[in-house]
């Protein structure tokens, strides 16, 4: 019973954080058909910006989270203007190859810059809330509860943005059919920029949550990025609903494997699970063979 409770508690917290991270990937893929392999770098940037805000400016973690999200928005917008915008219009497969190579280069630049500025030593984010309580043999940290609530709040805000704001509705229209959206007067270029910027904000916010759950290191974005990619593929490429559902399933799976077999088996079990799922559902949980998935 105690093990089951620990799995449920850890799975909800991890699933919420994984969903925040993976939605950033799903948004940008669903709209631009761009798999951002610099996503891990965005996660790391979020964690380190929050560390500077917390230790250098003395801000509490929730304020540092807002600062990191703002930095991610700016970084995403710069990524679109400098890296992606010049490539728009080249057509597939040149778009796919060019954006993948460019994002790998961006990831290398981000990691090298973080290493140069902050050095290789691990960094620790201060908890938002100290203390905790015990349920059976499971220690419930108030900070972990804060991280889960913060992630769920971010997901709800993203859902509101997509369904109620003008840019969100336009984003969904562009993702559905960019040519039809253009004929209806929606400026696809502006929506592309908004999408990448919002994706950057979500990624850096997720980086703060992950950095508070684990430790910060310059190359610490690789494993979370692989997890986010698995979540997006499992949920159905570009499907926001599928991404969120898949994130919680994978959160529970990783929590169960880590508690029963050890943390080192969490990622291998994740990929094995994905292989089995894709044998029976090649397009993921909510995926479709059509281009439009949001």
Give the overall shape.
Answer: globular
Query: Which structural class fits the helix and strand makeup?
Result: mainly alpha
Radius of gyration: 19 Å
Give the CATH level 1 class.
Mainly Alpha
Q: Determine the CATH topology.
A: ABC transporter involved in vitamin B12 uptake, BtuC
Reading side by side through the largest sheet, how are the strands ordered?
Answer: 1-2
SSE order: HHHHEEHHHHHHH
Question: What is the strand tally?
Answer: 2
CATH-scheme architecture: Orthogonal Bundle
What is the count of DSSP helices, taking H or I runs of 4+ residues? 11
Beta-strand level of the residues, as a percent range? under 5%
What number of structural domains do the residues give?
A: 1
Distance between the amino and carboxyl termini = 39 Å
Keywords:
single chain, 294 residues, mainly alpha, ABC transporter involved in vitamin B12 uptake, BtuC, two-stranded antiparallel sheet, 2 strands, 73% helix
In short:
With 294 residues, the chain is mainly alpha-helical. It has helices spanning 2-32, 39-56, 61-84, 94-118, 142-164, 166-176, 178-183, 188-213, 222-235, 240-260, 266-280, and strands at 132-135, 138-141.
